[in-house]
Structures are given as C-alpha cells and as structure tokens.
Amino acid sequence: MNLPSAPKARCVGHEEGPIRAIKFTSDGKYCITAGHDRTVRPWNPLRIDPTYEHANPIPATARSTIYMESLPHALPSQTYCDGYTYPISAIDIDNSSSTLLSSSNKTLVVTDALTRKVKKRFQGHTGRINSVVCSSEGTIFLSASYDGTVRIWDGRSFSTTPVPVQTLTDARDYVSSVTVLEKKNDLCEIVTSSIDGKLRTYDVRRGLMNEDDLGTNVALTCFAHTSDSLCGVISCLNGAIRVTERSTNTSLNTCFGGYTAGKYSLECQVTSDDQFVVSGSEDGSVVFYDFASGRVVQTLKGHGRTECTVAVHPSRENSSVIVSGSYDGSAVVWT
Hints:
The chain has strands at residues 7-11, 19-24, 31-35, 40-48, 74-76, 88-93, 99-104, 107-112, 118-122, 129-134, 140-145, 150-154, 166-168, 175-183, 186-194, 198-203, 208-213, 220-225, 231-236, 240-245, 250-256, 268-270, 276-280, 286-290, 296-300, 307-312, 322-326, 331-334. It is an all-beta fold.
C-alpha cells in the first residue's frame, strides 16, 4: 500500500497557537500553512532547510510516532503577514500560484503571492469565514461563513467597496466548507457542507440546487472528492465519514472508528490516487481508511493536540505525501 509511514520534516516558524489551514499548490512544489499567529507561510515540504542542524536523529524503530524536537525542518520560502488583523482560518491559491486567498475573521483577503502585497479586501460577512475557494484562474472567489452564507466575489472588480455577485443563503446553520468543481477551468458546480446536516450542490450552468440530507442531528464539517469528482467524502461531527456516489447520492460505505471526533471541525481528504481517505482526529492522530471498504489501514501518531487540518499532495506519483496541522502549533510532513 502506498501510504505514509514516517515523519519527514516539520514546518517551523509559526510563533503561537494552532495551525488552522494547509494547502498544496497545484503543482505540488509548495505547501502553505496558516494559523493563529496571523501569518501565511509557504514551504518546500520535500526539502530540508540547509541551515538546520540534525542534533537528535529519529530512531530507526520510530516509524509512527513523532519525536517532535528531533524532526528536521522543512525548507521555508517566505512569510505573508500584510493585511491580517485576526487569526487566519482558511486559505487557497490559484493554479498559477499568483493569487493567495485567505480569511481574517470576517474579511476575505486577496494577496499577490509574488509581491506579498494585499490586492483586495472583501467584507460583508457577519460571522467568521470558515472556508475559502479561489477559482483555478484566480478570477472568482468564494467564502463560507458562520453567518450561514456563501458569498461569491468577482476578483476582477475595480470597486473600492466590492459587493458579492451572488450570496447563497440556503443553509440553516453555519457553513463549514465550500468546494468548487471545474471543467476545463470553467466553474460548473459549488458544493457546500453545513452544520444543519445538509450537503448542497449548486449547478452553476443550470441554476439548480440539490440538497442531500444526511440525517437528523448529523453536523457536516468537511467535504472532499475524488480526482474525477464522481465520488464525495463527507466528514461528520459524530465521528463518521460518509463516502457517496455524487450523481445519485448513493452511500457507498462509511468510515467509522479509528479517530476521535465531536468537538472540533475536522478535515478529511482523498489521496491523489483515490485509494484512501485521510482524516485528522481530536486525539492528535492522522487516520487513513481504505476508500473501497472504509477500514482503518494506517494511523500516524505524534501531535500533542487535536489534528484539525490535512493536505494531500496533488500528484499521483507523490500520493503518499501528506502534511498535517494541529492545535499544538506544528505542521508535519509525512512520507
């Protein structure tokens, strides 16, 4: 099985508090972390910082537990801190890695990734932004919030006080995640998960919305999908991860057990080879499930606190590379 089994490096630089979001660039060369310290930091996750001195090498027998202080440091790139007045809870970046999108409480901040200067600030949400999406070409932005709305913004607007081109108000509780599905760089579907237990899919071309009710008292914390977008993976606050066929809303299996949930919004992802579902856990571990059967196949332990965010490498050749971020303030590269 092509699964990560050992920690390779640690992303060291965030000064305080949890790491709330991690995102790979589309080419997989960099991963980006954001956190409570109001900074966004890119890293080359597969290269070690040449200035780091290997003082305490990891024991050869330690293949599933982090010896945190002994991990070498991943190679840092630069730091983005302009325009962030509150902790950052969500990030995204366009396919050309030129437009960085992030949330600072209720504000959506757009940054030029090359100059590190803020280009635009979008305001209007009445609650904290939980999830952001940048279209592949960096022209359309989406933000999902505690206020129960998803707002769609025109990235090409020259207005000094921009307003959303559309606001989705169907959720009856806060929206935990928003995902955009594109075909040939053309926006075709928007998928949102909400604490009200509904997964909503908006067909942009036809102007239709499909609502999938996953049951009473089932809060949804994250949505992810396979590389062909035919299947979806939905993380629930009750500890279950549902795998569904998107076209028919048919449940294929349920990943259950192996991780702790109930208090935090935990992220789940599908590895780039579509073989495994990976999730964070409130006990600090990273858990892998077989996509077809839902069985636990790997558990990586070591984070000292809740492991809330995880990013998978976008290429199939590096599908065993993931980066996990935790409330203990650390981000770890696993291979």
